[in-house]
Amino acid sequence: MKISKKAENIRVTAANADQRIDNFLMSKIKNVPKSHIHKIIRTGQTRVNGSRVKSLYKLKIDDIIRIPPYTTETKLTSLIKQEYKEQINKNICYEDDNYIIVNKPTGLSVHSGSSQGYGLIDIVRELKKSNERIDLAHRIDRSTSGLIIITKNFNALRSINKSFLNHEISKKYFLVVNGLWNYKAGIKKMKIKRKDKQQEIKTLFKKIKNTKELSFLEAELITGKTHQIRKHCYELGFPIVGDKKYFFSKNKKTIKSNRLLLHAGELKFHDNLSKKNIHIQCKLPGDFYQFMINYCLL
User: Fold this and answer.
1) Which of 22, 44, 73 marks a domain boundary?
2) At what angle do helices 120-127 and 82-90 cross, to 10 degrees?
3) Is 90 helix (H, G, I), strand (E, B) or coil?
4) Which of 141, 196, 271, 287 is catalytic?
5) Which among 165, 185, 205 is the end of a domain?
6) How many domains does the structure of the chain reveal?
7) In this structure, are 137 and 204 located in the same domain?
8) Which of 45, 102, 117, 229 is in Cβ range 3.0-4.6 Å of 78 for a Cys bridge?
């Protein structure tokens, strides 16, 4: 559906201070190519405090930005059910001026554009309408449950991205795999191929408990690649219970589950903005916990 927007002036707040003008406009003018954003800056259609600026200009608090009229395509998004809002609101484990940490349920995508029509970020934005910007700091798979960091301003997003890049954030996962895990606690390395390129993945594994058929593990990401823990376990010969992508063929006996038994249960990092050490833990979800009881893994 096409929508037309009139010209408007926006005052910059602390939530967007220090952000580049082109990136700011990308967040405000949806579904247009970046070349169009650069064009309206270059031709002076967008101005800051009445003056032309370059794309690299960094916003300051109380700057007045003129956004010119534009037409864009927008998709009709599904209405977020009240029960989902209430669940996510209850699942907020931590919040301060910079961050929100949410315990995401399994089956919910973190981002928009999924088959559901909305994701965790859309629900949090709906809950926190008074915040000018709400952004995902990282992602976990739709089928994985657990802790997700969401930022409340641009400086927080930039700071946490730097912490991820420098491997300063500890993320621990808890999982159940098929088979008797026979590796000692330590870092496992493996080469994987993705997009025709060889990548090395590193995961720290530790066995907590096992039966003859299953093993309950703790895993910590050293590198952070897509599906890393799931892929790593499968390649080592121990697919995660409930994984519908990385699993053994039918001729091998495996235990089934209606959900992926992978949970991001612990986060630890130093907030360089507030100078606080943040350490958050969340319990296993009810269905995960019940599986553990049923198979004597507790």
Assistant:
1) 73
2) 90
3) helix
4) 141
5) 165
6) 3
7) no
8) 117
